[in-house]
Design goal:
Elements (H helix, E strand, L loop, with lengths): L3 E6 L5 E6 L7 H4 L8 E11 L2 E10 L22 E11 L5 E4 L3 H11 L6 H9 L33 H11 L9 H27 L1
Antiparallel strand pairs: 1-2, 1-5, 3-4, 4-5, 5-6
């Protein structure tokens, strides 16, 4: 029998390294605090490559127990939805030159790398935040003439809200448009025509309302 370092996943989800002087897979249940080996067995075996080394990692756990004794650790698939009770044991193996599996030490840092790899990797939020802070502002070197007063780029979609035309000139132009070629005011004629047109619209609306009411 050989000495072996394994990882114990305690009931509350915390990890604890354990050095076993004389490792025996059949007695792993004792290392997890169980008196009997009932319902305690290997639940999964992963083959994963980390730092150019391929590991075969196994989880031993008990799937029966009392309510409140559930293990709170989030295991990777395919046992991510499995319910275990009490502590669990995680061990590692490798294949030697003959292709035979041999036990190898498993530390918490190594298990963390394997855990991350099994989940497909995690995004480093701190590194992402640092990248966002160091990102270059594309509008920083754009001249003020090409930007709006709020700092946006004038690209045809974003323009200044201020009107370049003079209000008084716009009013004078509007007044002149009301005069016909003879210089007479045609505003009343347009209002009469508008009133006739508006009566048709109201009538149409009343018909539409009657149809919806029916």
């Amino acid at each position: 029998m050989q000495s072996l370092n394994i990882v114990i996943v305690e009931k509350n989800g915390s990890l604890k390294p354990l050095a076993v002087k004389e490792f025996n897979e059949d007695e792993l249940f004792k290392k997890c605090g169980f008196k009997k080996a009932d319902d305690f067995s290997k639940r999964v075996e992963w083959s994963v490559k980390v730092d150019k080394v391929r590991y075969i990692v196994s989880v031993f756990a008990k799937d029966t127990g009392r309510a409140g004794g559930e293990n709170k650790f989030d295991f990777p698939p395919p046992i991510d939805n499995s319910l275990f009770f009490g502590s669990c044991a995680v061990i590692a193996q490798m294949k030697n030159n003959d292709g035979k599996k041999v036990y190898t030490d498993l530390s918490i840092p190594l298990w963390s790398k394997i855990y991350e790899k099994l989940f497909g990797g995690f995004e480093d939020l701190a590194a992402t935040a640092a990248e966002d802070e160091n990102e270059v502002d594309e509008l920083e070197n754009v001249s003020k003439e090409k930007k709006t007063k709020h700092g946006y780029l004038k690209d045809g979609f974003v323009v200044d809200s201020e009107c370049d035309c003079d209000d008084e000139e716009a009013m004078e132009s509007s007044d002149l448009s009301d005069l016909d070629d003879s210089g007479e005011d045609t505003t009343n004629d347009e209002e009469d025509n508008a009133s006739e047109t508006s009566s048709d619209i109201v009538y149409c609306n009343e018909l539409c309302e009657d149809e919806y009411d029916d």
